[in-house]
């Protein structure tokens, strides 16, 4: 009888299992090394393709630039030849002024402008016949498209200007919001202007001096008014006299900057009057010597004069 087969011992099983795991680890490492080698080869091939494309593009740009330089030299030479031909032709005409003009010779010569135009037509025909497109023009067009896209995506810049209630709070004086801001051209006057106050044709008190500051506010609100107007028909902030430096014609006819008085109604209820005529609100009106100003329904009249006014 044949001897019975014995099962391997536990030690033999462990050795076989360890050998199998070692072989599987070696095969997985070989597969990883093969994958890395393929990636390196592919990357080198891609780098080589990019370098070859770059070399071809540089060569094409150089050929286009060389063609342009040659065409520019040819145009310059053609222009010079045409100019010399015209000069010789004009000299010959002066020498042969007694002989009739030679129409055949004159028609055979071309002016520089015609020569350049003909060469441009030939170049355009040659380009239309299959010459490769201009690389520089394509790149410029692409750059313009990118710039337009960036400009379209550009966000609106933030504005830090004052508006609404914040602007009102910065234009307050003694707890009251002012209805008027001085303009950039505001200046103190050099002439000593005065307001003479009359009521029913009789002068009242001393004249009001208007040369110590650049603007004067008229109204019933005494906390902010430079010249109070206490009549009930007058508004709290009724009108303002503002000195402005403006371009004016001088007595000698020349233009120059002068500081002159202007008046503005601040949207009063009962209007402001110059020489019995009402003025529109929120608009400057220039004041002249001996103008008469009235506010609302008040009977007081303010006559504008200066130190050099004739009595």
Automatic annotation (TrEMBL):
InterPro entries: Cell_Proc_Reg/RNA_Proc, FHA_dom, SMAD_FHA_dom_sf
SUPFAM superfamilies given in the database record: SMAD/FHA domain
Boundaries of every FHA domain copy: 216-279
Gene3D superfamilies, alphabetized: 2.60.200.20
Composition skew (Basic and acidic residues), residue ranges: 18-113
PROSITE patterns: FHA_DOMAIN
Disordered: region residues: 1-143
Low complexity: compositionally biased ranges: 1-10
Protein name: FHA domain-containing protein
């Amino acid at each position: 009888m044949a001897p019975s087969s014995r099962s391997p011992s536990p030690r033999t099983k462990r050795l076989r299992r360890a050998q199998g795991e070692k072989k599987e680890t070696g095969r997985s490492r070989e597969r990883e090394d093969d994958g890395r080698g393929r990636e390196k080869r592919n990357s080198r091939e891609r780098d080589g393709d990019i370098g070859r494309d770059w070399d071809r593009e540089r060569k094409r740009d150089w050929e286009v630039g060389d063609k342009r330089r040659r065409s520019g030299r040819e145009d310059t030479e053609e222009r010079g030849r045409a100019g010399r031909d015209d000069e010789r032709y004009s000299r010959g005409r002066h020498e042969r002024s007694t002989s009739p003009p030679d129409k055949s010779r004159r028609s055979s010569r071309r002016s520089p402008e015609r020569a350049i135009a003909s060469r441009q037509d030939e170049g355009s025909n040659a380009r239309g016949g299959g010459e490769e497109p201009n690389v520089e023009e394509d790149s410029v067009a692409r750059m313009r498209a990118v710039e337009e896209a960036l400009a379209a995506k550009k966000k609106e810049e933030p504005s830090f200007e004052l508006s609404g209630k914040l602007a009102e709070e910065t234009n307050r004086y003694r707890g009251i919001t002012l209805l008027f801001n001085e303009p950039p051209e505001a200046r103190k006057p050099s002439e000593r202007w005065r307001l003479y106050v009359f009521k029913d044709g009789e002068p009242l008190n001393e004249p009001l001096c208007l040369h110590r500051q650049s603007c004067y506010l008229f109204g019933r609100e005494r906390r902010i008014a430079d010249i109070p107007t206490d009549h009930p028909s007058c508004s709290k902030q009724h009108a303002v006299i503002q000195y402005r430096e403006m371009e004016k014609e001088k007595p000698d006819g020349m233009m120059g900057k002068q500081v002159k008085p202007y008046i503005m109604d601040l949207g009063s209820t009962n209007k402001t009057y110059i020489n019995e005529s009402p003025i529109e609100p929120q608009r400057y009106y220039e004041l002249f010597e001996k103008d008469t100003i009235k506010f609302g329904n008040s009977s007081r009249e303010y006559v504008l004069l200066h130190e050099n006014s004739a009595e």
